[in-house]
């Protein structure tokens, strides 16, 4: 069940890491998200799903203060995110946007090191702790051997892992990731998702990510949000949200929802024209 405005008011600094109140977001004058009340549970993995163009990436940018709202606000714990300094936000919240870009010639190590910049000042420059977190981020994303390679010489999947490493090096309690498995083969997709799961389980990181794979979303999410046309169509535990009715309403396709034989989470089997024809032949 979607939380009410009163629920959010009372829980804004306890249960939720990020909340929105009457949030409206637009691109070039076109309204994408309108009057949205949303709550992101602290210490959990929240996954946003929905068709292309429904507003998932826009919402993530709004939560990260990368997109200024035309109405409403976003709260980072109990404080309006727009009243915090850029450095304060960057120390609490890391974001991997969709299709990020970097200056030409930047090496993997130089890119990942940028994740440590919010933690430095005139009095505290690069430290041994920065070195440790940089090396840790390179190690857990399997990039140590590529650390001195220019970013623009890597494959799409390797570049994606480098951007994820930079976000991890930032070492923030909240991570927002827009399609973190883009360009990755299946084994690296699972590595990244397992890594995010471990960060949540062992370090209590709040993870918010956009995923296209509904079955991966159900496997890894504690809290699933289905987005349709800039609004929340349904949210809650994957077992409550991932229904045939939701898939039909949000994605415009028929499906069968089964139980994943490995994780016992919902598993979506889409039904296309070929599947229907095969079904008709059997009957």
From TrEMBL:
Cellular component terms per the entry's GO annotation: plasma membrane
Membrane topology: Peripheral membrane protein
Major subcellular site: membrane
Any GO BP annotation: iron ion transport
Keywords linked to the UniProt accession: ATP-binding, Cell membrane, Ion transport, Iron, Iron transport, Membrane, Nucleotide-binding, Transport
Recorded superkingdom: Bacteria
ABC transporter domain: residues covered: 18-254
Keyword Ribosomal protein: no
Alphabetical list of InterPro entries matching this protein: AAA+_ATPase (IPR003593), ABC_transporter-like_ATP-bd (IPR003439), ABC_transporter-like_CS (IPR017871), P-loop_NTPase (IPR027417), Siderophore_ABC-ATPase (IPR051535)
Gene Ontology molecular function: ATP binding; ATP hydrolysis activity
Subcellular location: Cell membrane
Keyword Transferase: no
Protein name from the UniProt record: ABC transporter ATP-binding protein
């Amino acid at each position: 069940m979607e939380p009410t405005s009163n629920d959010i008011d009372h829980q804004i600094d306890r249960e939720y890491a990020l909340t929105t109140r009457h949030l409206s977001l637009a691109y070039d004058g076109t309204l994408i998200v309108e009057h949205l009340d949303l709550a992101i549970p602290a210490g959990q993995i929240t996954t946003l799903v929905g068709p292309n163009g429904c507003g998932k990436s826009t919402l993530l940018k709004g939560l990260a203060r990368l997109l200024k709202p035309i109405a409403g606000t976003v709260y980072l714990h109990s404080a309006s995110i727009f009243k915090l300094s850029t450095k304060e936000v960057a120390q609490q919240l890391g974001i991997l946007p969709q299709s990020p870009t970097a200056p030409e010639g930047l090496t993997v190590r130089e890119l990942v090191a940028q994740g440590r910049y919010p933690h430095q000042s005139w009095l505290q420059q690069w430290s041994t702790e920065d070195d440790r977190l940089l090396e840790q981020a390179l190690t857990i994303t399997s990039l140590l051997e590529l650390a001195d390679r220019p970013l623009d010489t890597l494959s799409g999947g390797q570049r994606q892992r480098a951007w994820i490493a930079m976000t991890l090096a930032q070492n923030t309690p909240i991570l927002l990731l827009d399609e973190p498995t883009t360009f990755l083969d299946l084994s690296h997709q699972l590595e990244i998702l397992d890594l995010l799961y471990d960060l949540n389980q062992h370090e209590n990181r709040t993870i918010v990510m956009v995923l296209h794979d509904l079955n991966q979303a159900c496997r890894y999410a504690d809290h699933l949000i289905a987005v349709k046309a800039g609004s929340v169509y349904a949210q809650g535990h994957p077992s409550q949200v991932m229904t045939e009715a939701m898939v039909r309403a949000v994605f415009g396709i028929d499906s069968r929802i089964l139980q994943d034989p490995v994780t016992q989470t919902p598993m979506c089997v889409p039904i296309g024209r070929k599947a229907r024809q095969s079904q008709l032949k059997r009957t």
